[in-house]
Amino acid sequence: QAQLVESGGGLVQAGGSLRLSCIRSGRTFSMYNMAWFRQAPGKEREFVAAINWSAGSTNYADSVQGRFTISRDSAKNTVSLQMNNLKPEDTAVYYCHARRLGRPWYWGQGTQVTVSS
User: Fold this and answer.
1) What average pLDDT does the segment 10-20 reach?
2) Which long-range contacts does 41-46 make (Cβ < 8 Å, 24+ apart)?
3) pLDDT in tens, 33-91
4) What confidence category does residue 1 fall into, taking pLDDT thresholds of 50, 70 and 90?
5) Where residue 7 falls among pLDDT bands split at 50, 70, 90?
6) Cα 70–chain centre separation
7) DSSP one-letter code for 98
8) In angstroms, what CA-CA distances link 29 with 17, 32, 34, 78, 113?
9) How far apart are the first and last CA of the chain?
């Protein structure tokens, strides 16, 4: 059974850093690209960052460009999101996401990130 499991959320002061991780398990995620989304209270889920699993190319939302870095470890089947210089507006539940054209999409259960001012 395909599964994405996030970890690494928590409470941090503004200006601090956190690193989120997402393990892909249960089945092959071959050719699936990975992304992180987030959802703040009362707001819609929004795109944060994505990585092409094969090529390693990345793209980011304007709001996190230069502060967040997405990466993958093929050997560990893990995707990570390094978040630096965190701001209160980064507070949200962060979701790991796997997608591939023509195949089912997958979401993790989410991990809470809270940034205090």
Assistant:
1) 98
2) 43/92, 45/95
3) 999 999 999 999 999 999 999 999 999 999 999 999 999 999 999 999 999 999 999 99
4) confident
5) very high
6) 7
7) E
8) 29, 5, 10, 11, 26
9) 40
Distance of alpha carbon 70 from alpha carbon 51, whole angstroms: 7
Radius of gyration of the chain (CA): 14
d(CA 44, CA 12): 23
Give 75-101 as a DSSP string. TTTEEEEEE-S--GGG-EEEEEEEE-T
Residue 13: Cβ within 10 Å count:
10
17 alpha carbon, distance to own chain's centre: 14
Q: Which of 83, 97, 65 is nearest to 10 (CA)?
A: 83
**How many CB atoms within 10 Å of residue 81?**
27
Place of tokens 């499991």: 5
Tokens matching residue 27: 């089945």
